[in-house]
Amino acid sequence: MANPNLNLAHVDPVWDRICKEAENAILEEPLMGSLLHQGVLHHPTFQDALAYRLSMKLASSEMSEQLLREIADDVYETDEDIVAAARADLVATVERDPAAHRLLQPLLYHKGYQAVQAYRLGHSLWNQGRKDLAYFLQMRVSETFGVDIHPAARIGRGLMIDHAHSIVIGETAVVGDNVSMLHSVTLGGTGKEEEDRHPKIGDGVLIGAGAKVLGNIRIGNRSRIAAGSVVLHEVPCCKTVAGVPAKIVGEAGCDQPSVSMDQLLNKCAGQQSKYEG
C-alpha cells in the first residue's frame, strides 16, 4: 500500500539513478569508494553534490573550497531555475554524447558539463549585481576547464558541450534551449564595439568543432553549422551552413540536429532519446 504521507516533490529519479550508479561503481572499483562517497553518496540532493563538486574543482589559494561551497549552496537555495537547468544539461549530455553511459559521468568527470554549471553560478551572481564575484568565477572556469563564458551571456537549458576545449562565449551572446556544440567553438564579436555585439543562437542548433560565429547575428532554430566554419551572416531556421565564410549548403535534414549530432552534410537520421519509453 502506498504511503499517504509521501511527498512527491521529494521524488527525484535523476538523483536516485546517480546514487545507484555511484554504488555500482564502488562495487566495480573499490578504490573509487572515497571519491564517490564524498562526491555523491554523502549528499542528500543533486544540487548539494553539484555544489560540492564545483567548489572542489574551482577552489584556489585565493578562495577556499568552503567559501565557494557556501556561495553555491546559497545560489541553489534561492534560484530554482539554475538547478532545473543543471538537470537538463546533465540529461542532454548523456543523451547526445556516445561516450557518456551514465548520469554519474558528466557530474564527476566531464569538464564541459562542469564548466557550464560554474558559468550558471556566475550568471546568477551577475544578475544579483555581484559582478566581481561573477568575474572571479569566470576566471577560475577559464583557468580550470579552458572554457571562457562571460557571466552576462544568456544560455538556455539542455546545453551539451562535447570535449569543451577552448570554448569562448561573449558577453552579449544568447544561446537557446537544447543546443549542442563541440570543442573550439567561438561565439564572438567582430570588433571592439561595446554594445550588443555577439551571436544569438536559436533552439536546437548544432555547432561543429572549431566553428566561429561572429557578430550580432541570428542563427535560426534547428540549424547546423559545419565544423571549421566561420559564420558572419544570419542563418535561417533549419539550414546547414559550411565554409569560410559560411554559406547555406542545404537543409538541416532533421527536426533536432542538436540531438542527432549528425555532422555530415547529408541528411541526419532521427534518434530516440535514451530516456523515452
Automatic annotation (TrEMBL):
One MF term in the entry's GO annotations: serine O-acetyltransferase activity
* Reactions listed under catalytic activity: L-serine + acetyl-CoA = O-acetyl-L-serine + CoA
Name the UniProt key words of this record, in alphabetical order. Answer: Acyltransferase, Amino-acid biosynthesis, Repeat, Transferase
Highest taxon in the source lineage: Bacteria
Read off the SUPFAM superfamilies from this record: Trimeric LpxA-like enzymes
Gene3D superfamilies linked: Hexapeptide repeat proteins (2.160.10.10), serine acetyltransferase, domain 1 (1.10.3130.10)
Record's InterPro entries? Hexapep, Hexapep_transf_CS, LbH_SAT, Ser_AcTrfase_N, Ser_AcTrfase_N_sf, Ser_O-AcTrfase, Serine_acetyltransferase, Trimer_LpxA-like_sf
Class of the enzyme per the UniProt entry, highest EC level = transferase
Enzyme Commission number, as recorded: 2.3.1.30
Which ranges carry the Serine acetyltransferase N-terminal domain?
Answer: 14-118
| Record pathway | Amino-acid biosynthesis; L-cysteine biosynthesis; L-cysteine from L-serine: step 1/2
Matching PANTHER family, A to Z? SERINE ACETYLTRANSFERASE (PTHR42811)
Family, as annotated: Belongs to the transferase hexapeptide repeat family.
Q: Which NCBIfam families match?
A: cysE, EPS_EpsC
The protein in question is named Serine acetyltransferase
Primary gene name: cysE
